[in-house]
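RESIDUES AND SHAPES:
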Amino acid sequence: MASKGILKNSGSSRMAPQGGGAGKPPTAPTTAPTVVFGRRTDSGRFISYSRDDLDSEISSVDFQDYHVHIPMTPDNQPMDEDVAKAADEQYVSGSLFTGGFNSVTRAHVMDKGSAAGRAGGKGPSSCRVQGCDAKVMRDSRGDDILPCECEFRICVDCFTDAVKAGGAACPGCKEPYKNTEWEDIVGSAEVTRALSLRRGPERADSKMDRRMSLVKKTDVNQSGEFDHNRWLFETKGTYGYGNAIWPQDGTDDDGDGGAPGGHPKELLTKPWRPLTRKLKIPAAVISPYRLLVLIRLVALAFFLMWRIKHQNDDAIWLWGMSIVCELWFAFSWVLDQLPKLCPINRATDLSVLKEKFETPTPNNPTGKSDLPGLDIFVSTADPEKEPVLVTANTILSILAADYPVEKLACYLSDDGGALLTFEAMAEAASFANLWVPFCRKHDIEPRNPDSYFNLRRDPFKNKVKPDFVKDRRRIKREYDEFKVRVNGLPDAIRRRSDAYHAREEIQAMNLQREKMKAGGDEPFEPVKIPKATWMADGTHWPGTWLNPSQDHARGDHAGIIQVMLKPPNDMPMYGNINEKSPLDFSGVDTRLPMLVYVSREKRPGYDHNKKAGAMNALVRASAIMSNGPFILNLDCDHYVYNSKALREGMCFMMDRGGDRLCYVQFPQRFEGIDPSDRYANHNTVFFDVNMRALDGLQGPVYVGTGCLFRRIALYGFDPPRSKDHSPGFCSCCLPRRRKGSASNANSEETMALRMGDFDGDSMNLATFPKKFGNSSFLIDSIPVAEFQGRPLADHPSVKNGRPPGALTIPREMLDASIVAEAISVISCWYEEKTEWGVRVGWIYGSVTEDVVTGYRMHNRGWKSVYCVTQRDAFRGTAPINLTDRLHQVLRWATGSVEIFFSRNNALFASSKMKVLQRIAYLNVGIYPFTSIFLIVYCFLPALSLFSGQFIVQTLNVTFLTYLLIITITLCLLAMLEIKWSGIALEEWWRNEQFWLIGGTSAHLAAVLQGLLKVIAGIEISFTLTSKQVGDDVEDEFAELYIVKWTSLMIPPLTIIMINLVAIAVGFSRTIYSTIPQWSKLLGGVFFSFWVLAHLYPFAKGLMGRRGRTPTIVYVWSGLVAITISLLWIAIKPPSAAANSQLGGSFNFP
């Protein structure tokens, strides 16, 4: 890899082009530097770029301006404008950009042998008729002539054939040419050039304007700049706030010249077809469910009052502990049950989505996709714990998703900066050239190659094309070779690095010997050269080395951006039969979405904020490179199982009222779980019961993956029309509060970056650098993302919409300035003195940053929806090993404790959050504290059996009646939850079992860690969940039987042993006593068996496959059990009367 492109730091003045080129002289430095372009020739041989720096200490240092040198073209001749753009884009996609704070930003030209960058297809000046490579028609000025409105490029011969033999129809859009005379077309070339929205720049900000996709002359102010404020903050005049039905040309504010209000007549008569609909739970199920909740609530209240009034004087300590625990359990049950009162289901209509956004209409005559752009984030941190083959399969499933190719962009965040991940993604990009067209040709599901080839069903079912068997066999062989290459990358990188290192050492030794021969008197010393990690082209890897060194360690390396797959052309590119392609892709679109590798800069002394910081870096980089108004984030092991899931999520965002949705959450589904789901890894009670119930309130919580975000919601903006939709603290029960009644409405925590519907003028863009940083590219992209994310204004009932056909214009090509700016925004210093992580982007300060981020959005008045697709949208892996599962639950519970002790506690929520939603978030922060009362309650049966007492004086009818009512109502509620959620009874029972296992182990440890952090300031270590599989390849669930010792196992194992000993002691006392107390024995034994039944999966997991339990487990548990027994005897030694009753005439030998 030759370092041919370098972005240099240059002081306060800009470098002038060297030589006698046509570049302009440098401009004088201004207060706010802007991007200045200087070229030696039109071929793009020399470009100078600059960017603003932060308003901080480094403002006075020479780090403000950056310059990039683009390699000269071989012919040294000026290029056509489109060809120059294509050359810039090819340079970007073939270069590895690195840089960061106080360092040189470089563009290393990669010599890639793979086909990763070939997705761009033909050059823009070639005829696009299949089989023709001739040059397009041009006028006297050398500009391309586009005879059709669809801008289909065509040569003279193909145009003549289309006019004479093709019915004068365009080969691209199949629409008739409006003008078929060659002379007329040439004469009107200048007019066509002026009317085309995609032609060359006319003003400095034309690039951002063209991203807006629809620019009219009335929307340009006197300075020639696009007026974003007019688009964002309409008045109540012609447009009307939230109306967004654009007036016809020549229509004045009074609506003359058209339909009333200036609306097109066809919109007023057009029937509305929604994209989504609510499916309410049948009244025969939900009404009894709510009634049972009320009955159980009343029964609990009467039971607790009875328990408080009827004390057990014989064992007041036992009664006191039990009543405190029961009061907390009742409170915890209320918090968990109240948000479940309004569950709903939802459904989408993909046919309506296709009709509205991808069907030819008067506003979109070519039928090009009018869907908004979508950026997909995939995050990984450690290739050892998160295998690169799993990540590569996830990337391949994303690239093959059923979404417009030109609207899709995938970003991989490698927070470890590993060369292994980088080269694995390059291999995946190369294999995608075969895999993605194969999926499109044969409609493959799922589009993860590893999952597809491991399906346990007939792969030939419903496949009608005769060449499917041959294609599948060839793809399977190619994928097997791909796996071999990826699995061999660690050894290949290590051998390559050793070879290059040995060569460097030999060269250094030879140089030293030559100096000694030249007469040097210096003694011979062994040469010490840092052992670097080398790339395939013979250059140092700028990220983390296998042997860490300065500037090349996990927490100390430069920022890296590599465009693996460049943005595709806006028109389909169909394959054909040739020798290079092993498969026949005739009639199949072979384009690939953009794929970008990103590794943010890390330096010692900076808090990089783990996953949340990596996601925020992706948000900024993607805003500059593609700026999709919607963002989907996935874990590296969660792949796209349903190729149409992206469209289903977009149905909610594009439906009426969808502009008030901050995100669409998909359920998490898992593969590789043991059939019995011993440790409740599927978590179906949460995903199918709790999340559906929250969907009936303000929306489900954000769970970290499988979530489709609205970009401006992540930016911290309020939802549109927030005044009209403010729910108040309890909108379902109480009247809406007035603005002045909220005591904390103007607090720093609830204040948001409003979009414009607030008191006063429109938002001040000048304050954005303080919030989002000093990148002008990023700030300019914000109003564009807001506009492109609006629903389609195809009917007057749609509020805050955008005009149809506004997003059919292709996106801008990437150039070096864009990537250089993206490098700067992923630097470690960029977030200094900004609101990233505070109110913008993913929120920092918690292990569970996902829940906090979703809570902040709901707290600003946004809503979310839960999208359960008929075919699972995404699937991933989950740890089936007991130890890994406990550590995963420990991390979740620790984050909840942090939330409880922070300002993100739902007790401090704003009035914009509904009361039941507030209760749900309050339960998120409180549930770990149940472990304190739960572990005490699990010891109560044993203490009862040891002491011969019970929590009540006697097992009378009243106590048993209350106990029976509470138990029966709980069972009936469970049956009805199973009915309206669709889960199985076994899944509900597994959830109950693991609730007790986690509550007596991980949750208790989380509470202790949270208290240590709050009181003593001791930070909590973050453990990455391993995605590795077991070593036993013959057993798919071998990892299930592996026993790994952890201190979290001590409390539940101690509970098991003490309860078993207590049952034996209780039976012995009762059998050999003079007057047996069977009622107290039965009460204690019943609750002991209740505890043991819940802990059965834990005990089974400790046995392993062949009872290989570590000895330390039994040693610790035995010591703890003996200690507790001795402590009990010391506190309450047995009396003489008790000794006489115990055993009667029986004597121990």
Notes: The longest strand covers residues 2-9. The CA atoms of residues 726 and 984 lie 38 Å apart. The mean pLDDT is 77. The radius of gyration is 34 Å.
